[in-house]
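Justification of resources, computational component.

The compute hours requested in this renewal are based largely on the per-chain cost of generating structure records like the one below. Each record pairs the submitted sequence with a full structure-token output. That output is archived, and it is also reused by downstream analysis tasks.
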Amino acid sequence: MRKINTIIITVMMLLSTFAIAEAEELADPGMTPDNPLYFLDDVSDLFQAEEAVTDEKAAEVVVMAEKGNEKALAKAIQKYDKALLKQKKKAYLDEEKTAKVAEQVSKHLAALAKVLEQVPEAAKPSVEEAMKKSVKGMTESFKELKALNAEKGKQVAAETLQKVLADAPEAAQKGLQNAIDNVMKNDAEESKKQSDEAQEKADELQKALDELKKQLEEAEQQQAEELAELQEQVEEAQQQAEEAQQEAEELQEVADEAQELLDAFEQAKEDFENQEPGKLETDIVPVQPLKKDLIEKLVTEAQQMPSGKDKADFLKDVVEEIQKLPEGDSKDNYLKDVFTEVQKLPATPDKTSVVKDVLMVVETKPKPKDKADFLKEIVVEVQALPADDDKAEVVKDLVNQIQMVQVDPSGEIETEIVQLGLDEGKSEVLDDFISEIQILPQSKKKLNLTLDLVEVAVLLKEEEKPNFLQNVVKVVKKLADNKDKTEVVDQVVVEVGKLPESEKKTASLQDLVGEVQKLPADKGKTEVLQKLVLAIQTLPEDNTKTGIVQDLVLEVQKLPADSSKTAIVTDLTKIVQVLPESEQKTDLADNLVVEIGKLPVTETEKSSLVNTVTTKVIVPTTTTPIQQVVTPIKTNTSVVKLPVKQVIIPKY
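The structure output for this chain reads:
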């Protein structure tokens, strides 16, 4: 019998729930916390949607407040808080559900504000506590919605804040405003405090990092024994400083959002008092404006903002809107106006991010002349940006775009390029970037940026590469001599090896041999040695080449006798064979003969290698090796015949 009664009660509660769900105002509370059978209410909640449960719990708070039952009221508030949290979790990452939570909680807030004026004084603190929970739930929903959809988040916040003020009776206005004020101001103050503390910590870590860098620089100059330990400390401090700064920036964003929400509520109060409902919504989120009108307003607002992170983030949003416009004069003019504001930003990573976005828009410009003009201005800004991974990406993108402008098939820009000075500007950017990387402390970042420089080399014109790669080698010489450096040296050797023969190529290879000598002995170093041997084969046969080969042979002597060493020694014997006769060459040949004897090959093969390295070959040193370049001729293509200089090729 008792079981049947329980089922009947549950069914009745469910039926009442369905009726409640259709109501526009607060739901009928049904069974309340002062009822002995209230425990059954938890059972019925299992069969209801989360929003229906939250509405019901809010109604229970109102009823218990009206009755003045403090104990039951406290229980009702606890249940309401739990239901609201559950509903918010279900709404997470869902725009429609999150907007629904904000609207629903604002209705609860208005009802609580109304009952606050009617309950006994003893019950008011509990009602105020329930109102705080409602405000908290509402503001969190605004923030979550804004993260999903910025425009919709602002619009819902504006509409909801005005609506909650309009729905509350006049007598309850003051209590309602106080509740919202308290929560929002506390949030803004607390988040601002956390942000300031985090930034203070980040500044302290940065200060400590700067001191360590100074110590490291002094140790490098003095070649102190504690150099390696200091390098490790700097890397660790660098990571801590970067993580602290990132945390500070994230907390600053939270603080900005809290302040923005507080400002929106202040504006809503002002509009409500002036009886201009809807004004805030129009101001914050224009209703279906023309895209051009919207961008004009955004640009105007950007011009009025002080320089800083907020402005940088705002400009990124404006650039994103400009990118959506069709190509034309309007788009160009908006981009110029925005870039004028970008130029005013301090040289920080935030500015780098904006410049990167601007480059994406410039890339789509259809006219090479317009693109070149803009790139010329961007070059100046890039030079001043801080050297980091983001700048590396910007430099690569910039160099790539300049190259594309210069080889434009239409030829429209061909006569303009010298006047625009893009070649010179590009060189300045690269030289500036290389200089910054050279003075960075040893770190993973410095290593990655050096690898980025090698990637930039691939984008350059052939005549620009020798000088650029020679400067890259200077950066390589500043890297710590460890396994990571081996990877960088390997890639640089490959690119330098592709260069046409010149004094700069010889000098670069000579420096790289010196760097290889410092690397830790492992498979990676052996592979770099193989590539170096191949790269020097085409160098002019002179004393400089002999010196380079001598250094390489010294390194080869340290290698274990395996197939890799055999391949290297085989190539070296061919190189030594054609070197000009000298005492150095004789010593090299003797050393190689010793190494040949250690190789894991047959006696016949050893004998052949010894004969190769000891056979004298007289090579004239007054001529320069000539490489014949054959250019395929495409049909329907005019061919320009160049004057051919007669060259006498010596007979060997």
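The radius of gyration is 37 Å. The CA atoms of residues 153 and 258 lie 13 Å apart.
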